[in-house]
Amino acid sequence: MSKKLRAGKAIVLMICMVVVLAACGSKGNNEKDSGQASPGTGKKTTVTMGFWGTAEDLKIYQDAASSISKQYPNIDLKIKQYPSSDQFWNTLPGEIAAGVAPDFIKTTNEGSYEYITKGLFAPLDDLIGPAGVDLNRYVSSANDIWKVDGKQYALPSSVIPGMFFINEELWKQAGLGAYPTTWDEVEAAAKKLTTKDVHGIVINIDPYHITNYVKSYGGGWDNGKAINSQANVNGLQKIFDMYKDGAAVTPKSLGFGWDGEVFANGKAAMTTGGYWYKGFLKDAAPNLKYVTLPIPKGTTEGSTMIADGYVVLKDAKDKQAALQAAYYMTNDQTQTAFMKNGSNSAVKTLTPQYFQENPEFKSVEPALKTATDFAYPAETKKFKDELVNQIEATILGGAKKSPKEILDAIQQQFK
């Protein structure tokens, strides 16, 4: 998906290093697991939050850090920004071994299952009560996405479905009428929108985008148990069909790094995407007029649910203080600031305001009821790489595998 800056490419290296290095470089903080942020002593506990994002995100976090003492006088919150998700996950293992890793991080639910199954994120259940955290503050669907085997692994920050974007000017120039609601309608429109300079649709061969297609056909990966389901085959077949028609293009084919760049440069009229398009297009193509729709229907209404959350790392020096700092990051003022950037708050009382603040996303509101978690296999990095490699080999490399053959082969690796 890319510009969302999600964790992924370095996941295997990160997990292998963490498991080994954490064992060798344990900070001996077991006695601090239920720390109280030094209550009543007047001594502050320093808590560090790690995140990757924009300069604007950093300012919002710094403002929150400067005011946290109003609610938690014993916490001194430091913010550490990483340039990208890749650098974050590449750097973290060494930081854990050296005892300088952040205490909690802001991350996305896509790919988080692998970290949870490897024991790198701390379960929060035993900390929630003592920390004074109220999970009822958040919408239940956001809480549920961060539950694994009945345990809560994050405080949700945002929750928003996947989206579909159309270049309004190109659509009108092609003489097209009502906007599409199904993939069949998208495919027909993509053919009419395709010219010598513009492709009808950019389909980034990336698990985020692929997952939105398969979910719209009633599919999903089910943590590796349903990779080769017929619904998934149908979703992947639709992608193949649009490439076969010549109406679809990959960012790589045009020399771009991700789908947003293709869309911003007017090289494709349609694309799957997400809320991050708003901030990106504001800077990259301020004059581009676009329409945002729910993910089109294949056989059903389905899409991914993007739910960012605050996760306490297993080696946090003071887990309870870290959780309290994470909880503070979901205060109304901080959440409202992020809503202005296009991110829908997971806080119940703020969610209704989101579509007033971001009217261009109003059409996707119904999808909040049908969008679901990514549910990648526990070996997420392996799965994502294999999925991309096999599809690219056919679409870009000339291999002759069908969607069923591709998914059957991948399923064999995740029995």
Structure report:
The protein folds into two domains: 11-159 and 307-364, D-Maltodextrin-Binding Protein, domain 2, CATH 3.40.190; 163-303 and 379-412, D-Maltodextrin-Binding Protein, domain 2, CATH 3.40.190. Helices cover 40% and strands 13% of the residues. It has helices at residues 11-24, 55-67, 85-98, 112-117, 125-131, 140-145, 168-173, 183-193, 207-215, 230-244, 259-264, 276-284, 319-328, 332-339, 351-357, 380-395, 403-412; strands at 45-52, 75-82, 104-107, 147-148, 151-152, 155-156, 160-161, 163-167, 201-202, 248-249, 270-273, 290-294, 305-306, 309-312. Helix 2 (55-67) links the parallel strand 1 and strand 2. Belongs to the bacterial solute-binding protein 1 family. Pfam families: SBP_bac_1.
Brief descriptors of the model:
5-stranded mixed β-sheet; transport; 3-stranded antiparallel β-sheet; D-Maltodextrin-Binding Protein, domain 2; 14 strands; SBP; 415 residues; 40% helix; Sugar ABC transporter substrate-binding protein; alpha/beta; globular; disordered N terminus
Whole-number total of structural domains: 2
Average pLDDT reading: 89
Tally of individual helices? 17
Biggest beta-sheet profile: 5 strands, mixed
CATH class of the largest domain: Alpha Beta
Low-confidence stretches: 1-41
Q: Supply Rg.
A: 22 Å
CATH architecture of the largest domain: 3-Layer(aba) Sandwich
Helix content: 40-55%
Proportion of strand residues: 5-15%
Give the total of beta strands.
Answer: 14
Distance between the termini: 26 Å
Q: What's the CATH topology label of the largest domain? A: D-Maltodextrin-Binding Protein, domain 2
**Helix/strand class:** alpha/beta
The CATH homologous superfamily of the largest domain is termed: Periplasmic binding protein-like II
Shape, principal axes of CA atoms: globular
Strand order of the largest sheet: 2-1-3-14-6
Organism: Paenibacillus rhizovicinus
Family: Belongs to the bacterial solute-binding protein 1 family.
Keywords: Signal, Transport
Protein name: Sugar ABC transporter substrate-binding protein
